[in-house]
Design brief:
Length: about 120
C-alpha cells in the first residue's frame, strides 16, 4: 500500500475533520435521542445525572462508531448510506475493522483520570 504524501495527504486530513464534524452532527440528531440515552446508560450506568463535555463526547463517539441500533446498523453505517457522494476512501471508517480500531483509540483517549490533562496518572 502506498502512503499518501504532500498535498493529497493534507487534503485527506482536512476532509477527515469535516467528515468527523458531519458524523457528530448526524449522530446528535433528534432521531438518535433514544439510542443516545441507551448508549449513555451502557457506557456510564443508568443513574448518570450530570454530563460533562468529556462524557458527552465519549458517548457520541461510542454511539456513532460502535453502538448497534435496533436494526443492527451503526450510526456511521447509516451516515455512509445516506451520503452517496462520499468516496470509497471516505467510506472506509464505516468498515467493521476500522470502526473497532477507531473505537479503541477513542476509548483510550477518553477514560476518566487516565492520560494527558487528567491531572492523574496510572
Amino acid at each position: 500500500m502506498t502512503r499518501a504524501r504532500g498535498p493529497r495527504r493534507l487534503d485527506l486530513v482536512e476532509r477527515s475533520g469535516d467528515l468527523k464534524r458531519a458524523l457528530v452532527k448526524f449522530a446528535s440528531a433528534p432521531r438518535f435521542d433514544d439510542a443516545f440515552e441507551d448508549a449513555l446508560a451502557r457506557r456510564h450506568g443508568p443513574d448518570v445525572t450530570e454530563l460533562d463535555e468529556g462524557t458527552v463526547a465519549n458517548v457520541i463517539d461510542y454511539l456513532a462508531l460502535q453502538y448497534r441500533l435496533p436494526d443492527g446498523d451503526t450510526v456511521v453505517e447509516r451516515f455512509v448510506a445516506e451520503h452517496p457522494e462520499l468516496t470509497q476512501e471516505e467510506r472506509r471508517p464505516s468498515e467493521p475493522g476500522e470502526r473497532e480500531r477507531t473505537g479503541r483509540r477513542s476509548a483510550r483517549r477518553s477514560r476518566p483520570g487516565v492520560g494527558r490533562g487528567s491531572g492523574r496518572s496510572r
